[in-house]
UniProtKB/TrEMBL annotation, chains A, B:
<keyword id="KW-0805">Transcription regulation</keyword>
<keyword id="KW-0238">DNA-binding</keyword>
<keyword id="KW-0804">Transcription</keyword>
<dbReference type="GO" id="GO:0003677">
    <property type="term" value="F:DNA binding"/>
</dbReference>
<dbReference type="InterPro" id="IPR036388">
    <property type="entry name" value="WH-like_DNA-bd_sf"/>
</dbReference>
<feature type="domain" description="HTH hxlR-type">
    <location>
        <begin position="12"/>
        <end position="110"/>
    </location>
</feature>
<dbReference type="InterPro" id="IPR036390">
    <property type="entry name" value="WH_DNA-bd_sf"/>
</dbReference>
<dbReference type="InterPro" id="IPR002577">
    <property type="entry name" value="HTH_HxlR"/>
</dbReference>
<protein>
    <submittedName>
        <fullName>DNA-binding transcriptional regulator, HxlR family</fullName>
    </submittedName>
</protein>
<dbReference type="Pfam" id="PF01638">
    <property type="entry name" value="HxlR"/>
</dbReference>
Length: 124, 124
DNA sequence: TCGCATAGGGATAAATTTATCCCATATTGT
DNA sequence: ACAATATGGGATAAATTTATCCCTATGCGA
């Protein structure tokens, strides 16, 4: 990884959580791996908006952070399977909670995000 | 806000959640506001690693996304108080879950993050 | 023999996010 | 007079993250 010019802030727990979960696709990757989509090509199909490259990068980071592990099969064409480590499994309920919140508020969120700069939301 | 060149991905709930929660300090801001630290200067003292500027920017975004509201008192020196909207309150348990996870795994996380590129963690 | 599937990663450009610096307001205390 | 307090935001630089492009490898099927 690149030499970091600005040191990470790792003061409180939330900093640490941020460090392993930030990344445009990481949460989704964990979620899908947990749901049984183990191969890179499957994940790519599940997340078509991400390029192959970024998924690799983020999978590598998740692996380096000990949330997922990688099994390489010595076959051709190549076959790789990711799975959660036992540590990685502990984060799944957290993601579940977040997803549940997002789903329950999907319409509202979509509205707020889309209408920024068009109108101020009523306070409440 | 700046014109965005690459459109946001807002397919699933998690994308939406990401859109309002991403930002280096947003989660902490929500947490502290909920804990009763309402004034910008208080928040700044609570999060000394962030510059005043960024906190303002992120507070503005949280407000635009309808998670917090701002009350300005017409006094000098200026006084401002933020508080959660009722919608903002609904995200607090989610942050709580994340924080709890992070605290429970603090040592492990700290270890993993610090030792990247020094050794590969044992699988498990 | 070409094309496809599968996986991985270097190099570099572009986009986005953060950081830094600076200025403004108006009152109270030194 | 001058510093400090409190809040806010413009302008611009720097850092970081994503996106793009391209190249590698090896069998299988058309």
């Amino acid at each position: 990884m690149r030499e970091r010019k600005i040191p990470l802030n790792l003061n409180c727990g939330l900093d640490l959580a941020g460090e392993v979960l930030y990344g445009k696709w990481k949460i989704r990757l964990l979620w899908f791996i947990n749901a049984g989509h183990k191969r890179p090509s499957e994940l790519q199909r599940k997340i078509p908006d991400a390029s192959r490259r970024v998924l690799n990068v983020q999978l590598n980071e998740l692996e380096a952070h000990g949330l997922i592990k990688k099994k390489i099969f010595a076959v051709v064409p190549p076959k790789v399977e990711y799975s959660l480590t036992s540590f990685g499994e502990t984060i799944i309920p957290v993601i579940g909670t977040l997803g549940k919140w997002a789903d329950e508020n999907e319409n509202r969120l979509r509205d707020l995000i889309q209408n920024i700069n068009i109108k101020q939301p009523e306070e409440n």
